Request: fold
Amino acid sequence: MQNQAAFRLATDADPKGERTIGVLTKPDSVSDGATGQLQSWKDVLEGRSFRLEHGYYCVRLPTDAERARKTSRSDFQKSAARFFQTTYPWNTIADRDRFGIPNFVANISALLVKLIEKNIPDLRAKVAQLLIECEDDLSALPSLHTGDPITEVYLRITQFCQYFESAVYGEKEKSFVQAIQRRYAVLKRSIEATRPNFEPYHQYRHLAQNHCESELVPASGPAITLADVKETIVSGWELPTHVPYDATKKYIRDCTTLWKEPAISCFNDIFVFTSDLMKKIMAHHFGQFKNLERHVALVVEKQLDAHRRDAHNKVADLLNFENIPIYTQNTELFYAEKDHWFRCYRNLAYAEVYRNDGNYDAVDVMATVRAYFQVAHKRVIDHVPLCIENALNQSLAKGLSKHLLESLQEGDADMSDQERMAELLEEDPEVAKKRVFLMDRLTRLKSIKQKLDMFELSLVEDSD
Reply:
């Protein structure tokens, strides 16, 4: 017994032995002279070794010769009974119910009934839990389409387009708009960082700090001192006190030409956000119907690409407008900013600034350039996001329904509208397979529950 793998497995699976019964077979294969082995068998049957809660049974199976003679079951059972009654040591064991297949079957049947009675509450609870889980899994599957296919397709596409439009305007998918707003904030800081890095006090940096710039995003460009600006101003044959426009234009364009790269980078990121949102809501609205999802995806991809190119060009044009001419009608803000920055730069120059000297002209150019930057960059950090939203997201949302509904008219000319729509609504094979599996499982579980109920009822009736 110590070498029997079945005994070890049974002990591991049923430590208390409540569901384990031992069966010894082929007692006639042990010779009369194998006294040690015969005694071991007897000790097991009488419960002195390898004890089990329900003990052991010993059965004799038909030999090859008996099967060849086609011995009847009745005759074989009589032969097996004579063997156990006349053969040592089996005839010396007091509990005769432990021998033969009829005794084994009768006793194990009674034991099985007791085990079932004992475990019915646990079985019922387990089946009830499995039924709940199975029904929940079925409920989680997309609902089956049972109505008119044309109505169903048109309704799903309309709902999809309305949902996307709601997301674009911030009524749905709040995280989408929040991500866009965060990206526009990054664009704002990137544009602000292109400001002219005027430091009239540069050579006296150890003496003071520019408090006018303390709350702003650090400038990304190199420092530009009074000396640098004065050198730019007197680069030609200008008369005294004459400041060439080219000097102002140079410093302005040094800033504005840097705006295109962060603006286009921002646009590309927003396009990715929009594409990802499209994939997400397409899967939600059409994932159950892979044919319909693929059809919609092809149309959406074309529309995304067309709006991407159009919006990209509009953003690029918008940035090109900032190069030539250098212009603003917001003169009140411009003059206010110029006065402010003139005072800042003059106070920070650590040099005498008189109206008719080079220092005054340099500070005036600095203030003019910085004032224009303040006016121009403020309109850009608003206009670029508005352009992206209008030319990409809002325009896409506005025309998407029209293009999708028109695409439904395309397809196999030999098929009717009803047939084409029905084909689009064929359920995803994987979903259909899972649905069949769950429905079969639900049927089996309900059958088991019914049998447990009937069995429990029969026990109650028998007890009455």
In short: The two ends are 44 Å apart (CA to CA). The chain has a mean pLDDT of 87.
